[in-house]
Amino acid sequence: MDEFEAHRGRLRAVAYRMLGSAAEAEDAVQEAWIRFDRTDTTGVGNLAGWLTTVVSRICLDHLRARAARAEEPWAELPEQVWESDPEQEAVLVDAVGRALLVVLDALSPHERVAFVLHDLFAVPFDEIAPVVDRSVVATKKLASRARHRIQGTPTVSRAERERQRAVVEAFLAASRTGDLDGLLAVLAPDVVRRADASALPPGRATVARGSDIVARETAGFGRRSRFAATAMIDGRVGAVVAPFGKLLIALSVTVEEDRITGYEVISEPARLRALKITVFDDFPLSPPK
Question: What domain range is 55 assigned to?
């Protein structure tokens, strides 16, 4: 028991990054403990590696089952999601990165497992290959393909990207606290907000114009904004709104001369699936301490 407990924290971290769900990660670790308890491991030279392989295979089975169900998480926007206590959620999600969890969800099960194990936990490819049932060469290709999908190819220069990123982050910070002055400082006077009807309260117009109107409206979405994070949307700076790491809304933002001249709120599942969402290329893809 003590042997397993010494590795529980790392196993939970691996499972959470693979599954994006604290509850499912805990279930996977518990199942790994059951298998450990029923197995004679006295001849296992590298128990940490053995346990990582076990929990990874369990997670891969979960991911395959999820893909087979092809479920749409929260196709509607239930109020309990927005009203939930964010404290525990924030600790878990922020440790990984909300945008990264969103992008990981778009990978195939084998890509996700290969990428998480190698790029986030520095597991050698020769140890990952048996987990995903691929050759070492094919496993490297899985991780490489996943890495490319996660980091993408920006359509703007680094300097321009960082400038736009600062504007969008200031917009999100002001919206979280309902700071009207802060919102007006980053919105162009003639800003236009467009939105899918499903992202708005009943009766709200899908198009809003003018900084005063858009700022006051945005200030009222503070509880949703706390689940937001900047990300690259189709190669340009934008944001994702993802409670518990599950994408519900994407913001496609246009920035000109350090002001937001327009943004679109995308919430229709088909439109979200069509977006290419990536993390910034300075995201720390390295094993957690």
Answer: 2-67+103-151
